[in-house]
Amino acid sequence: MTEKSVAEILIVEDSPTQAEKLAYILERQGYGVRTARNGKEALDILRGWRPGLIISDIMMPEMDGFSLCKAIKKEDDLREIPVILLTALSDPGDVLKGLECGADNFITKPCDEKYLLARIHHVLVNAEMRRRSQVRMGVEIFFKGERHFITSERQQILDLLLSTYETAVMKNQQLKQAQEELETSNEKLEKKVEDRTSALLSEIEERKRAEEEIKRLNSDLERRVAERTAQLEETNKDLESFNYSISHDLKGPLRAINNFSTILLEDYFDEFDAESRNLLKRMSENAKKMSDLIEDMLVFSRASKQGLRLVEVDMEELVRSLVGELKTACQGKDIAFDIGRLPPAYGDRSAIKQVFSNLMGNALKFTQPKPAAKIEVGAELRGGEVVYFVRDNGVGFDDAYANTIFGVFQRLHDAREFEGTGIGLAIVHRFISKLGGRVWAEGRKNEGAAFYFTLPKKGA
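RESULT FIELD:
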């Protein structure tokens, strides 16, 4: 029988994927192919069909490849069919078992297509040669504690051993190739590690230089901060000395000017003509204005440096005490005070008193032109926080200036019409900011004004 007369091959493989792959390779070469899922199914097929070659996996359920091969070689009408076993050759005993069961050849898994086809051609040719010689031999072998009796033909044994050797050589070549690839990969990896190490060392050096530069800059900054702090402390001392000078050295002469002008007007009134009396009066008024300005500047300065004593403040009691003071100061004027509910606040009592005093004093001043003045003090809840307010029905202001009204010496009305130093609202803003709150204003010309402020909750 020649290969050309062989047209059919039986594949015994429990893996459908592997069986399909083998069938596809063989059918493309013109072979007729049938498949069986295990040894028993293969024997059933062989009872009514004689293929020219059987390719069988070793590891299968119910009946493995060795058992199938033995069963085939025991049958007189089947033993001439060459059997190729698919194996990983992970156990040297597989070779002896293959010889013992009468296998014709081994093919390693996974199958290389070119090698598989060459091996099938080789097996078929050698099968024809064995049929011509029909010489058998018996050999007993003891291997790994087991006895094996081999009755295969010499050509069959030679073919199987040669295929095993060829497989070992091929695997050795694959191993050598893999080793070369591994060495190449290791060289590339070492180069990468070397490059990365070099980069890391460079990066570390750069980082060290950066850290040293940062240390130098921090040291320089600390030195400059220390110098600047010393300068500020010296400046603060100078300011304190200046404030002391204003408080004692300037206010004293101003009080003297005011007192002397008052004495002249009272004791020598008849000796002065109308113009002289007017000049003395204006001198006294300006001296008082200067004294008020100095006092407000001192209050503004203290607002920045003054330490805070935070306590719970009874806002309603505080405002009502101020109302009493204001009513006493403006007797004879028609002023209606509307004091609403004022929740307690957490802050410095003297600072909050100064805030309300300035806001209510402003309201009182700018409602003077009104025949019936009304000043409202209250509180409302907005967005989860308490907002305190002072509203009036006075001359108001253009709302476009609401953001600048709290600046020092910011006046929106003529000083000749409404007396004042222009510092009162700046003091309000300074105290509220220091307490951690917010302050803002709303107004319209001739329709009154409203001033709002918030204070943080206790523990905030």
